[in-house]
Amino acid sequence: MTAISCISLVCPVGYTPASAAAAMRASIAVFEELPYRDNGGQPLRGARVEAVSTETRGRGRLQALARLAVEHIDEKIAALLPWGEMPFLLCTRDAGMPGARINGILSGLAVAGGRPLVGSRTFQIAYGQISAFVAIEQARKLLNERDVEACLIMAIDSLIDARSLSWLDRQMRLKTSEVTDGLIPGEAGCILVVSKRPIVEGSLRLRGLGLAVETATVSNEDPFRADGLSAALKAALAEAGVEMHKVAFRLSDVGGESYAFEELVLAQVRNMRQPRLEEQPIWHAAGCMGDCGAAAGLIQFAWAEQAFKRGYAPGQLAALHGSSMAFGGRAAAVVSA
User: Using CA atoms, how far apart are residues 213 and 227, in angstroms rounded to an integer?
Assistant: First the structure.
């Protein structure tokens, strides 16, 4: 068994997993004008963490998000974890995407009581939106191959960065005054614990996980059939031993691009072998806080956990989806309470 629990989530709509999930459930959006402009000179809109000043930029912004995420770990939960002994996996943006440097962003961070956040074994997972899924797969291997009870996964990312925004704008992927079919930038810091047994009450159970690569990206002209996401979802369902029509609801990291919405539909259709009489809703965190990059995957796990824990999940099984639109990585997971 693999248990997953979100112990910290700092994002534009909340500073704890419970408050953020409540805001997303209520569809509370916090978009505002950012101190950046598009290539046409018009202000960009995005969702930022209010506790981080607009004057804090680049690596300093990532450091501030990491510090807030650590500070908001509940002390009662922190007391249950073997700090310093857990392998640490840091999820960051895709290696090919411009942005702030990440070296040193965890320097000096410690949980309550001065216990070290980062253990002796650390890994960087630089796969952007699918980083959470890749990290969980790596954590499963560590739990099986080594004598460890738990792994710590942290995702820190902010698209509210001049380099990232300029790159997205040049790629025509940023929602601007001239481009309506684009994403809205966001930011977040999130921490998960992956363990062999539930350490935190109400943890998720990972039933299946799938990873794949899509050759048709937003930057080429290859025929688009959602092969990558369909394959990842098929693998996750096969490991879980369930059919697509048994999944009660889905979560995704879609940030606003129609290409990504089409992919979700195609992946569902290509894996649906029997009709489903009930609705199979899709929850989009980006509708409240924009595209949070490498943190988007962990936010899905956090929201699913809160939905099961608080009794508003529309069923027993949830499917999570991850897509790195520009670089081809695709991932999916099936979870339950």
Answer: 8
Query: Running DSSP on this structure, what letter comes out for residue 233?
Result: H
Which residues of the chain does CATH 3.40.47.10 include?
3-195, 204-336
Beta strands 317-323; 88-92: pairing state: unpaired
pLDDT tens sequence across 53-107: 999 999 999 999 999 999 999 999 999 999 989 999 999 999 899 999 998 899 8
pTM of the predicted model, to two decimals?
0.96
Closest CA to 320 of 253, 227, 269, 242: 253
Residue 195 CA to residue 80 CA, distance in Å, equals 12
List the one residue out of 133, 279, 264, 295 whose CA is nearest residue 210. 133
Q: Give the integer Cα–Cα distance in Å for 170 and 328.
A: 19
CATH topology of domain 3-195: Peroxisomal Thiolase; Chain A, domain 1 (3.40.47)
Could you please state the CATH topology (level 3) that the domain comprising 204-336 is classified under.
Peroxisomal Thiolase; Chain A, domain 1 (3.40.47)
Distance of alpha carbon 200 from alpha carbon 81, whole angstroms:
9
Which residue carries 């690596």 as its tokens? 59
